[in-house]
Amino acid sequence: MQENFGVLVLGHGSKLTYNKRTVETVAGMLAERMAGVTIKTAYLNMDRPTVEEGLKSFAETDVTTLYVLPLFLAHGTHTLKDIPKILGLPDGEHRTTYSLGARNIDVVYAEPLGIDSCIADLAHRRLTEA
Amino acid sequence: MQENFGVLVLGHGSKLTYNKRTVETVAGMLAERMAGVTIKTAYLNMDRPTVEEGLKSFAETDVTTLYVLPLFLAHGTHTLKDIPKILGLPDGEHRTTYSLGARNIDVVYAEPLGIDSCIADLAHRRLTEA
User: Fold this and answer.
1) Which chain B residue is nearest to residue A93, measuring alpha carbons?
2) HSE toward the beta carbon, residue A46, CA cutoff 13 A
3) Residue (of A22, A27, A118) closest to B74 by Cα position
4) Is the dihedral of CA A115, A16, A130, B86 positive or negative?
């Protein structure tokens, strides 16, 4: 990862409070793992800040490289079409430059959570708790 | 958990292949952790089998208690309204009886993945891999 980097955690958004609470809490847990890094959250739908608002909010920081993390379980239309379109990412690309008006920042688009044994471990735990 | 139980893992479904692949792979990982348990998958939207088809498919098993696991990151309208409606679960309840025609099975509705430090660990890993 680059120096002077920041992280924008993107959530789906929801009419209910749970998605936003999950995204904000996970972002807080990330902050514990990445001391000194500016970590913000934004949402595709139904919640604020929007993705554009989240991106623009880094104008007032010294961040030069922004990691955009889609907090989604799997890739889908949101992660492969909607978010890349907002970021101005060509199909299949993971790096681009985004204009904050007075300056540009480098953007690195991370993968969603995806398949991992820890997801199965957590799913198993939810079953045993039920 | 009960004897003679089965598991139905529910995914959101997608026009693309990634959600189904994730749900099927996690279901396979669960099967490794739960030897001898019948584990099936179903989808709310855009993929088959549907939730109803997934439920009915347990008619041909000896399962008497079915754990329904929503493989969603957080609660939302799908997990709190749509799925409970299909299961016939009253608001806020987690247990009901579901008719398979010739017999009834007990249904236990598990929680979605939700907030957990392992989600933050995985998100952190996706950032370092980006």
Assistant:
1) B130
2) 12
3) A22
4) negative
Largest CA distance in chain B: 53
Task: With CB atoms and an 8 Å threshold, state whether A73 touches B113.
Answer: yes
Q: What is the mean pLDDT of chain B?
A: 96
E strand map for chain A = 5-11, 38-43, 65-70, 95-99, 104-109
When pLDDT is averaged across residues B52-68 and rounded to a whole number, the result is 96
Neighbours of B122 (CB within 10 A): 20
Residue B102 confidence (pLDDT) = 87
> What is d(CA A45, CA A20) in angstroms, rounded to the nearest whole number?
11
The yes-or-no answer on residue A124 being catalytic is: no
Are B22 and A121 in contact (CB < 8 Å)? no
Tell me the residues of chain A between 12 and 71 that have a Cβ less than 8 Å away from chain B: 12, 14-16, 18-19, 21-23, 25-26, 29-30, 32-34, 67, 69, 71
**Cross-chain Cβ contact B127/A26 below 8 Å:** no
Q: What are phi and psi of B107, to 5 degrees?
A: -115, 130
Beta bridge partners of A68: A8, A109
pLDDT digits (tens, 9 = 90+) for B8-46: 999 999 999 999 999 999 999 999 999 999 999 999 999
Contact B71, A123 (CB under 8 A): yes
Distance CA A2, CA A14 (A): 32
